Design the sequence.
């Protein structure tokens, strides 16, 4: 008997773009200027599910920028409060999700399989063998006295513990290496960051609700596929639609587990295959996703915004081949050091290289590059309005456009 072929629903590329933007929160109503609330910050968290952390502060630390892109000039102290609370007041927890990231606490136990894998890494074994006894001593200090920074842990270690090495950048001391291993393994977590961006370490029971710690413990003996399937579902809801590669990349999952997750979600009616004209890849869509008729407004996107994480997806949906050039030698950069894509009326129309000159009180616009086909004369006022809003949000008094 010949199997019946089911014709896939087909959508246009503009519909796919609007679906992606709506899923990421770009159609949600923005608060009035200066009237942001924790509820609105939580709405963004619920939309994106994962916010990448980055220490580069040439403009603003990256984790603050996705909220500005979706809310406008919000009170960034609300994000700190969401990150640094404890117990039921904790809205975010830090872990290695999509790189170093902030995630809802309920997502943390889903990454137990990654915590367990950390214990098997050669790096972790080398830490424990090179410094016997130090790992246990570090954990005991954090459990008794946390939350503590790495330097504070080191200062409280009993006499005779290994305290060699500089605690800065990649020159981590043995104590810092132990802390990072324990963090990867889920034995300690972050209670937030200091004003100088140092992580404050604590045992999970000190800052997370007891049911989440219990869920982490139970997940150690569970099938990792269950967690992977839920993470892929969260990625699909956050993206609206996507390929297997971009859905797996959301939480940095690769391999056959992603494909298995999509099959399971399809069987449950939580993912549907679709065809997107002009995007020549198998695509899955969240059945609950919507494609609005338009996505008005404008936004400046962090290089680490989840909308543009997956570069192949960005190129397929918007035609922008976007690359981070921070690590490219200055003479070889094409667009600049810290370049933000500019979203206008559902299109990525340009790239802006920005720097916050805090001593001078100036937002420096070091370069603007318009995408081919963009009416730059028509788009410029919207860009200037976004830059003025960002300058005010950052506490800067003026803009300075570099001469071409």
Sequence:
């Amino acid at each position: 008997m010949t199997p019946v072929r089911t014709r896939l629903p087909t959508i246009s590329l503009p519909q796919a773009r609007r679906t992606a933007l709506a899923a990421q929160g770009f159609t949600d109503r923005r608060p009035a200027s200066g009237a942001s609330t924790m509820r609105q910050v939580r709405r963004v968290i619920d939309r994106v599910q994962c916010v990448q952390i980055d220490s580069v502060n040439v403009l603003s630390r990256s984790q603050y920028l996705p909220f500005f892109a979706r809310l406008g000039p919000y009170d960034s102290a609300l994000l700190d409060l969401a990150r640094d609370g404890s117990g039921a007041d904790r809205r975010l927890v830090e872990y290695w999700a999509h790189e170093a990231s902030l995630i809802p606490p309920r997502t943390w136990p889903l990454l137990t399989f990654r915590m367990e894998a950390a214990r098997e890494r050669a790096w972790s074994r080398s830490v424990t063998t090179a410094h016997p006894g130090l790992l246990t001593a570090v954990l005991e200090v954090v459990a008794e006295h946390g939350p503590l920074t790495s330097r504070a842990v080191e200062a409280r270690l009993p006499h005779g513990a290994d305290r060699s090495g500089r605690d800065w950048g990649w020159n981590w001391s043995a104590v810092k290496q132990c802390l990072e291993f324990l963090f990867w393994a889920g034995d300690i977590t972050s209670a937030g960051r200091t004003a100088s961006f140092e992580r404050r370490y604590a045992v999970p029971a000190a800052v997370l609700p007891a049911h989440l710690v219990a869920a982490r413990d139970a997940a150690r003996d569970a099938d990792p596929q269950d967690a992977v399937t839920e993470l892929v579902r969260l990625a699909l809801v956050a993206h609206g639609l996507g390929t297997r590669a971009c859905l797996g990349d959301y939480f940095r999952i690769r391999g056959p587990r992603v494909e298995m997750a999509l099959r399971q979600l399809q069987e449950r009616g939580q993912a549907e295959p679709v065809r997107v004209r002009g995007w020549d890849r198998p695509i899955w869509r969240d059945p609950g996703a919507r494609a609005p008729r338009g996505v008005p407004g404008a936004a400046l996107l962090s290089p680490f915004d989840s909308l543009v994480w997956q570069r192949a997806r960005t190129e397929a949906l918007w035609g922008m081949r976007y690359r981070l050039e921070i690590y490219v030698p200055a003479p070889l950069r094409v667009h600049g050091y810290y370049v933000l894509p500019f979203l206008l009326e559902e299109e990525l129309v340009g790239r802006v290289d920005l720097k916050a000159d805090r001593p001078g009180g100036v937002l420096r616009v070091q370069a603007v590059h318009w995408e081919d086909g963009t009416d730059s004369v028509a788009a410029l006022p919207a860009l200037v309005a976004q830059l003025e809003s960002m300058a005010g949000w950052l506490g800067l008094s003026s803009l300075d456009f570099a001469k071409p």
